[in-house]
Amino acid sequence: MIKFFRQIRQNLLSEGKTAKYLKYAIGEIILVVIGILIALQINSWNDNRKAKIVENNFFANVLLDLEKDDEKLNYYHRFHQKRIQYLDTLLTYVRNPNRTMGIEKFGMYVEPLFYSTNATNYATTFESAKSMGIFNNFREKDIVKELSQYYADFVLVENSFSAITRIVENQFEPLMYTLPEGYITETTGTLVVSEEDVQKFYQKVSSIKDNRDITYDYDRILKTSSFENYLIGDMGRSYGAIGIIETRKSILNRLLERIKEHD
């Protein structure tokens, strides 16, 4: 094709048709420019198509991560609601000394308080995409910005859960260790909320017969001011955790809606 155009130019020049040659040259330049523009347009379209595929795959995977996160948040919410119920029951007995709880019921309500929960965040897809630097080619930058803030705010969940763990370790456990743990039975862990199977632990402990003649003075613990202070502190932190969880769930639900609309 190039040889063909060159032949035309040479013929025009040899025939002395300069004006026609100039017109032809201009036309040829225009054709070349149009060809370049078409090629650029095709390349741009191809790049956009590839970027759209990458973006769609990203949001599809993020959607799966957020759905896992939603399930985990539901568990956290249930965990802390139950915790508040147990704290409420114990505080009621503390403030009503004429009511008798009994060692078995006491054990069932205090045992769940030994358990706290670790915060888990499903951010693999987002962090991987961030490290690869692919967000610049995304159209839905507003959603990416919201996702970035959502994952950054996970530290609030971590701090909230850590605060409960610290109060359990520093206040609750030292107080409870003044009471021999022979009160543990196979049903002691019935009210425990945990992602792990803890019943085998209680079955094992209760299977070891206790031949000591011990009086479990749980009533002494109920009457200590430090136990009441612990119950109130734990309850406050649990309410705080629920507030953070509910706020996070609200943001997560909005993100789920926006990403599904994007699809």
Description of the structure:
InterPro entries: DUF6090 (IPR045749). Pfam families: DUF6090. With 263 residues, this protein is an all-alpha fold. The protein has one domain (2-262). The chain is 74% helix and 0% strand. It has nine helices and no strands. It has helices at residues 2-14, 18-94, 103-110, 124-132, 141-152, 154-176, 199-207, 218-222, 225-262. The longest helix is centred in the first third of the chain and has 77 residues, at 18-94. It is elongated, with a radius of gyration of 35 Å. The relative contact order is 0.14. The model has no long low-confidence stretch (mean pLDDT 86).
Chain-wise SSE layout:
Elements: H1 2-14, H2 18-94, H3 103-110, H4 124-132, H5 141-152, H6 154-176, H7 199-207, H8 218-222, H9 225-262
